[in-house]
Amino acid sequence: MINEILGYITTILAGSAIVLGGIVEGYGYGLSLGTNWPYTNNMVELAGKGDPEAIHRIVATLVGIFSLILLIIDFNTITIVGFISIVATALLGMATLYVLAGKLPSIFQGFHDIAAYTTFITYLILATDYISPSKYIGFLINAITPPHFLYFVIFMGGVVTGTRRMKLSIGDVRKPKNRLQWAWVIHGIVAAIFFIALIILRYWIPLVFALIESAVGLWTYYQINKNPTKPGAVIGLHQLFSLAVVVSLIFFS
């Protein structure tokens, strides 16, 4: 029982950290704490004043604490992978600050997003005990292999974020002219492959969420072009529906 409770708490915190990451981008707080990582002296004070980046880091820290507790009290394949994924998310989180500062390539943002989603998936499965550890590993393998390439969609979304450094407009992608536009186009292509795969596999509920997510994605594109530095809450909403797609894949595939 305690494992389930801690699993649900960790899942909620991990999902919240992902959505908060979207809010950070949406309101231009990506480098509000500079490249100092993981903490600054007044981070709690800044969180109290509503700085989403400070809140994001505090929530991520809580995920790490609960992850370590679960690893200690229930040492198994899922908790091991979960702890590794949160450590990877944290280290790549530091790298993303340097991506935003223009000191590292955008692929680090993509890998960070994969690690963050793996953390969410891991603790959701641990909490619900919906599938066995072997099927859990199978789910992760399916996310990076044909037919649906889920992690490639997530990765390219992160690359787009990293390439635009949370401040650049994407522009007209009908005739890609630069790295950012090509990243967005590739993101769209792998998303289209993902939709086709869901149809072939007859994963209808995930497909519905994916189509809603794509509509939010187009809205995100519009908002970024309208206001590149502060596109608004739509970025967080984009992440929220991405989580919904992942959850539906776990329970309805």
Task: Summarize the helices and strands and which ones pair or pack.
Blueprint: H1 2-26, H2 43-48, H3 52-73, H4 77-100, H5 107-128, H6 133-142, H7 150-164, H8 179-201, H9 204-226, H10 234-251
Helix pairs in contact: 1-3, 1-5, 1-10, 3-4, 4-5, 5-7, 5-10, 7-8, 8-9, 9-10
Apparent shape: globular
The number of domains: 1
Series of H and E elements: HHHHHHHHHH
Q: Percent helix among the residues?
A: over 70%
Strand content: under 5%
Helical stretch tally: 10
What does this protein structure show overall?
The structure is a single chain. The chain is mostly helical and 253 residues long. The chain has one domain (2-251). The protein is 74% helix and 0% strand. It has 10 helices and no strands. Helix 9 (204-226) runs antiparallel to helix 10 (234-251). The chain crosses the membrane at residues 6-33, 54-73, 79-102, 137-161, 182-201, 231-252.
What key phrases describe this protein's structure?
single chain; 10 helices; globular
What's this model, at a glance?
Helix content is 74%, strand content 0%. The chain is mainly alpha-helical and 253 residues long.
